[in-house]
Specification:
By secondary structure, this protein is mainly β. It has strands at 3-7, 10-13, 18-25, 32-39, 46-51, 57-59, 67-72, 77-82, 91-99, 116-117, 121-126.
Length: 127
């Protein structure tokens, strides 16, 4: 059974940094696309970043140059380094995994295609 557990959320001032982690169990890193999504109050779920089996990353335009997705296959852990945080980054952040041979084609805009989700971790950025 696949389980995803996020950690690392919190409250920071604008311009600050946070690193989110997502520990996975029950999945083979090379067989899954991994991604980070977020959902702010009153808004839909938004793709933030994805990373495929080869480590190729895709980012939403709103976070390019500020966020970095990475993974440690040995630890089966996904990360999201978030720098230069803005109040509009405030949201619940979720990690997700999609069993698609490890490829992430179209994965940033297709949250419904992911098989597994974590419980979420809150990020709050104040000005």
């Amino acid at each position: 059974q696949v389980q995803l557990v996020e950690s690392g959320g919190g409250s920071v001032l604008a311009g600050g940094s946070l690193r989110l982690s997502c520990a996975a169990s029950g999945l083979t890193p090379s067989s899954y696309c991994r991604g980070w999504f977020r959902q702010a109050p009153g808004k839909g779920r938004e793709g933030v970043a994805t990373i495929d089996r080869y480590g190729r990353a895709t980012y939403a335009d709103s976070v390019k140059g500020r966020f970095t997705i990475s993974k440690d296959n040995a630890k089966n852990t996904l990360y999201l380094q978030m720098n230069s945080l803005r109040p509009e980054d405030t949201a619940m952040y979720y990690c997700a995994a999609r069993r698609d041979g490890g490829y992430c084609y179209g994965g940033l805009s297709a949250s419904e295609s992911y098989n597994y989700w974590g419980q979420g971790t809150q990020v709050t950025v104040s000005s």
